[in-house]
Each structure stands twice: as structure tokens, then as C-alpha cells.
Amino acid sequence: MSYDFDTPVDRRGTFCEKWDIKENELPMWVADMDFKTAPEITAALLKRVQHGVFGYTGVPDEWYDAYITHWQRRHGSALKREGLVYSAGVVPTISSAVRKLTTPGENVVLMTPVYNIFYNSVQNNGRNVVESPLVYDGERYHIDFNDLEKKLSDKQTSMLLLCNPQNPAGIIWSREELARIGELAYDNGVVVVCDEVHCDLTYPGKEYVPFVGVSEKCRMNSITCIAPTKAFNIAGIQTSAAYSENPVLRHKIWRAVNTDEVGEPNAFAINATIAAFNEGLPWLDALREYFYKNSLRVGEFVESELPKVKLYPSEATYLLWLDVSRYGVPSKKLAARIRSFSGLFLSHGELYGGTGKDFLRMNIACPRSYVEDGLMRLKRSLDAVDNGLI
Asked: What's the predicted TM-score (pTM) here?
């Protein structure tokens, strides 16, 4: 079956966060897609809507089976039913985990640059963010394991938030890297909470490694956050799962999400999840191919038209990480100038810590025409920067 990712969908007037902007602006910032979700999901939701009664919803066996089957089939990971806990979202789960598994004033380690909401989940709960910056050699990022060990061995450190695959640079961590992270965390009594929400958005031919399947130390000292929301563009339905094979951690995260009242599904969350994992894979594979080709187009354009920009060699997510360090302008200021001049709305890298001040993040989960428009706006803007016009 063929899927249409080229035809634009008008999202204005739908209370859409991404498109609630000025008429002439092009949003390529927040991480949701401008595509309709898989038709199988829409059909499942329409059927649910037509029922007409939207009362309290439970978590049936079919929900557990959908996760277990999908992770075995797609990622070769054998999830256990008793390890799964329903949650209304990955971010609520992370925040609940911070509140339940750490105490105010303790340290939570982030390997930066990393998903900016990690900072909120830590700081809003009175814990300390401790950055272990990734080392950027001008081509790729590398983990500074000496620094990571130093941060994890601090007796005040109680948690590591890990993003796998990594947002914003689209890094797929290797089995060896994950094993080393897991060993250092376990040996220092630091729990790993792993955000794997982008795991189904690897480039064709690429596969991520689930943290829980790497080693015994990883398996017994982690909580993994997974969901269909990013891959199938259903973030607004608010559905996810937390997973832990450590019965103590599993109980704690179950208590955490229920204490925070994010442990019960809305009327559509279960149906959307089951349809996504059981029926949506052909759509997902077509999607991955489409945004991969978008990434190739951006790479071609950057190489030919933007000699002062370097595109990070991403392997996952539909988010591109653009090195703009040669402009000598902090990315927050540069992003604001670009938006003001051309209407192109990109995320500035300072949000993500680490080397983020030298990067912009571009969302390419959109029709190719949007990508072409965005690239031309970017070129005009950066030419204006070079010529001292903005």
C-alpha cells in the first residue's frame, strides 16, 4: 500500500501548538509530524468515537500483548508482561520517576546535549541537574566516560536520565556504550531512567539497542519509557508505558504514576496503541523512508549551498542537528534572527545544553515541499547574516 506524505495538511485552526504562529512563518521546531497518522489508527479511533460513550478506560490484555509483540518483532527484545506499567506519557513518567526515586537536593545526571524537557523534570522537582557533556570532535559526539564516572560516583547522585536514540543529534548508542553506561550506574547505585520514545524512528537499515537487553546490570537497574506517540504522530493522545524487570523499581514506578494520577488511560489511548503496534508497521516503514530521503535532501543542500553549516550524521529521529558554529553567533540569537527575517522557526540548540549553543535543530517530518521552503528560507537568512543585514 502506498501512503501520501507529500500532500500538505492544514493544521491551522486545530489548536495546534506547532502551527499557532504568524501566517507567513514555517514551523520546523517542536517534535511532532505534519503527516496524518497511519490510516489503521484513524480507523480504530473512528470506531471508538462512533461508539459514543467515553467513560473510564481500563488497560486490557491486548495492550500488553501489543507492546510485547511489537518489541519482539521489531527490536528482538522479549518484554515481560509484569514489567509493563501504563502511563499517560513519557515526560509524566520521567517526572514521576524523579519525584519517587530521588529526593530534593540530589543530583540527576544528563549526558548533554539532550532533550530539553529533561531539565524541567529535574529542576521543577527541586533536584540538581549535573551535566556530563558529550565530547564533539567536529564530526561526531563521543561519551566522556571518565567524566561520566566522576559524576555518577558522587554520593549525591541518584539518577541518570538517558536518551536512546538520542535527541537532538539522532545518535544510536552502541551496545558497548550502553553496557559501559549501565555498569557505571549500577556500580555506583545510580538508577537509569531511559527515554526510548524515538526507538522506532531509526533510518532504514539502522536499529537501536534497547537498554534493558544489553546486560544484567542494565536490566536490573533501569526503567525504560516507551510509546507509539512519536513514531505514529499521536502525541496528543497521551499514551505510553514504563518498563522495568526489577520488581522493586517496577513497583515504585507503578506507585509513582498512580500517585501523580497519570496511570489511567483516556478513552482513546488504548485503541490507538493497539492499532499502531499491530497494524501500523507498513505505514511506519514508508514514513521512515520518507523522512530519511528528506534528510538526504537537506544534506545535499547544506553541502552545495551552505558551506559554513555542517549537518550532524544522524541515524535516527526526524530531527536534524545543524552545526552553525562558524557564524560565531550563539544559536539562540541566530534562531531568533532567522525567524524574524524569513519566518523559519527552528529550535535553538542552547535548550539542550552541552555544545548546543553552536547548533540549530530542524524537524524534517513534513512534506518535501516544506523542506524545500525551509532550506531556501535558511539560505536567505544565513546570507543576510553573512552580509550584515540581520
From this structure: 0.96
